[in-house]
Amino acid sequence: MPLLPDLQSFDVVVVGLGPAGAAAAYECSRSGLKVLALDKGVHPRYKVCGGGLSARIDQLLGSAFQSVIEHIIYGVRFACAGADPFTIESSSPIAYMVMRDRFDHCLVERARGAGTEIRQGESAKRFTPVQDGVEIDTDQGRYRAKVLIGADGANSVVAQRLFSRRPRRCMPTLESEIDIGRSPVYPRERVVGIELGTPACGYGWIFPKNERLSVGIAEFRGPSASPRRVFSRFVQGEQGLRSMGWTIPPPQGHPLPLFNPCVLDESKPDAVELVNGRIMLIGDAAHLVDPLFGEGIYYAVKSGQLASRSAVEVVRGLSQSLEGYSRAVYREIYPEFRVASRMASILYSFPGLCHRLAHRYQEFVQLYYRVLQGHETYQTFLALAKRSVKASLSHWVPHVFRARP
């Protein structure tokens, strides 16, 4: 009978080395904890993803990722099925475009530089909660951690094994990378393309990278009858893509974890467990994805940083529980998602109307850009928008009555 490998002990074990896991590992290591990070893949590796980062990521990562930015975005070309597109630009960056293989690898190496022990090509198989920690069995070794952080994506093994009320709602997204060489950037320099209405309850995107375009679709409400048919209709409807004669490779799919507003009510069965004893879920594993446009990277990094604070407190004996992480998510992320979810319900129910209103009232789009830049939150955006509408109505109503004979 073969001998079991020796049990190696760590303060923190992170499963998954996407942006969430790499951010958590970096912060824990920087705080002096002994950290092991496991990933079933090997970096750098291709990741199906639009690769759009809202500019507010600067507040979380500073200059750590600047070397892998492919394009800086200042505006959006908005389109809606059959309607004329229009572009609204900002004087300051609203987003950065990256390729996920380079971006993720950059964050992994940052964690390694801070002292994280990185083990790639190693899959976590079993997790056993024990007193004051968790034991982890992989296909190559056995480990013990005082804290386990599950950062292994929408199909998280950690969530499946250890969280009975794990989120289950995911939608398929499709994306293709088009090699355009040194052709002019499409839709144009410093601008991304967003089209509403082609996916019935979602949007299509065109994100420019260095000598390529990321083109994809995502739906947020209800199952799509045929995502590939919707993708084909989207790219065929883009006259600029057709006229350039580019070869569009078959799209690849990946699950997009959806935020469920029921998580805000812990009495409901769909309420999400973010913490179970000495285990936390972060990023896509916890379904921390913006419900308006599906941005996950910002909230992956943010949740990784929030989780690291609780891990440090528990390891150092400053707290007996990881619930500080749950409280931080309910305080700093979920209120934002509540507002974004309401906005998404309107946007994807009435895409044509929203497209026309955005064209007419561009100041509201500029205000939303300030959310992407980190100058406003969804909550302050909503308050300012309501105040602006109220002021407009208070001016318009007396004017209408004065105009009556």
Automatic annotation (TrEMBL):
<dbReference type="Pfam" id="PF01494">
    <property type="entry name" value="FAD_binding_3"/>
</dbReference>
<dbReference type="InterPro" id="IPR036188">
    <property type="entry name" value="FAD/NAD-bd_sf"/>
</dbReference>
<protein>
    <submittedName>
        <fullName>FAD_binding_3 domain-containing protein</fullName>
    </submittedName>
</protein>
<dbReference type="GO" id="GO:0016628">
    <property type="term" value="F:oxidoreductase activity, acting on the CH-CH group of donors, NAD or NADP as acceptor"/>
</dbReference>
<dbReference type="InterPro" id="IPR011777">
    <property type="entry name" value="Geranylgeranyl_Rdtase_fam"/>
</dbReference>
<feature type="domain" description="FAD-binding">
    <location>
        <begin position="10"/>
        <end position="162"/>
    </location>
</feature>
<dbReference type="InterPro" id="IPR002938">
    <property type="entry name" value="FAD-bd"/>
</dbReference>
<dbReference type="InterPro" id="IPR050407">
    <property type="entry name" value="Geranylgeranyl_reductase"/>
</dbReference>
<dbReference type="GO" id="GO:0071949">
    <property type="term" value="F:FAD binding"/>
</dbReference>
